[in-house]
Design goal:
With about 375 residues, the protein is an all-alpha fold. The protein is built from 19 helices and two strands.
């Protein structure tokens, strides 16, 4: 493409940004982990990040990572791939209504759950216990999500995403609900320091806030994307009935996913348009908070039996010990070498604790691959 045509195409990509809100994050504000020569690139940085995210191998594995109900025979239950698409659509609806940068929103939304483990939050909790015991560090899916795109993808070289997208992934956790979200100004250095602190400090992990209004939109969209959908899944397999939802919640949000989503989106737009923050009304926020509590008590705590939880705990620990042994003995015939470390960068192999490597490998597994990888025994 000649220079004249290249510049014209670049202008077309960025034309809409002249119409964005004064609170939007523009492409010219994008900060990459490492500087790149993009003189021949037609895609703006956040738009480009979406391509890097969806072409990553870890994105493909969303297909076989469950949301709540693992190993169900019902093909209509949500998987991670459906959830991130729902969050993207919800967040872009809010973002377009508020005149924000949809390219940034889409990149964050599609990448936000990449750090999730097999068996959903159950697997995350088990890996957290392993990580604290073995490394003295916290394991959390949002932190691991940054690690995946910063350090693990592309044969452990990373994807060199923008700081704004990585920050949105780090700060996306919709389970930490608030009725108002103010973006927090950050530099690349302060973001990296915050990311580092999340491994050690529980308080930091729970208090991280996005650096962009677009990141705030994705954060609230995360809970909108799963709260009603999880209800539909639970009804689908008979865990709850629609009538179980308390009347107080039903009057404000409705009982079907589409009504819940519409009510929340409209309320957020009404309370956030033209503002430097994302906000819900008190009535809707309280109803959403109560619905989240209802889901935890009646859906999430019933998603697995005690026997299943004990099985997952035992087998994930067993798998961790096997992976660690294979790394320490340099077992080139093991799956972790053949499937994960075969083409790994020298820096990753030389400067990453074997315990961390084992956790990285397990955390990236799909549900089915986790079951297939469980060793029958460990031979010392």
């Amino acid at each position: 493409m000649n220079t004249l045509m290249l510049n014209e195409v670049k202008k077309n990509f960025l034309k809409k940004e002249s119409l964005l809100s004064e609170y939007a994050c523009l492409s010219e504000q994008a900060i990459r982990m490492k500087e790149e020569d993009d003189s021949e690139e037609i895609r703006p940085p956040f738009y480009h990040d979406t391509d890097r995210i969806i072409h990553a191998r870890s994105y493909t594995r969303y297909l076989n990572k469950t949301q709540v109900f693992s190993f169900s025979k019902n093909d209509h239950l949500s998987k991670r791939i459906v959830h991130v698409q729902l969050v993207s659509k919800i967040a872009r609806t809010i973002g377009r209504s508020l005149n924000l940068n949809e390219d940034l929103i889409e990149a964050i939304a599609l990448g936000h759950d990449i750090g999730h483990t097999p068996i959903g939050h159950v697997g995350e909790a088990i890996l957290d216990r392993i990580s604290r015991r073995e490394l003295g560090e916290i394991f959390a899916h949002n932190v691991q999500g940054v690690r995946v795109y910063k350090d693990i993808e592309n044969n452990q070289l990373g994807c060199n995403l923008t700081i704004q997208v990585l920050d949105g992934i780090l700060c996306h956790n919709g389970e930490l609900l608030s009725n108002v979200y103010h973006p927090e100004s950050k530099t690349k250095e302060s973001f990296l320091e915050e990311y580092k602190n999340c491994y050690q400090n529980e308080k930091t992990l729970k208090q991280v806030r996005p650096m962009t209004l677009e990141g705030c939109v994705v954060r609230i969209s995360d809970i909108i994307g799963y709260i009603g959908r999880d209800i539909e899944d639970a009804i689908e397999i008979g865990v709850i009935q629609r009538e179980d939802i308390p009347e107080k919640i039903r009057k404000v949000l409705g009982t079907e996913n589409r009504n819940i989503v519409n009510t929340l989106i409209h309320d957020i737009i009404e309370n956030s348009l033209g503002k430097p923050y994302i906000k819900m009304s008190s009535q809707v926020f309280e109803a959403l908070f109560e619905l989240k509590e209802f889901n935890y008590k009646n859906i999430y705590k019933k998603a697995n039996t005690k026997e299943q939880l004990a099985f997952y705990e035992e087998k994930m620990n067993l798998l961790y010990q096997q992976c660690l042994q294979d790394i320490k003995t340099n077992n080139q015939e093991s799956d972790i070498y053949k499937l994960y470390l075969k083409d790994a960068s020298h820096e990753y192999l030389e400067h990453t604790d074997p315990k961390r490597i084992a956790i990285d490998y397990i955390s990236g597994m799909t549900d089915e691959f986790f079951l297939e990888s469980i060793p029958k025994e460990i031979v010392e």
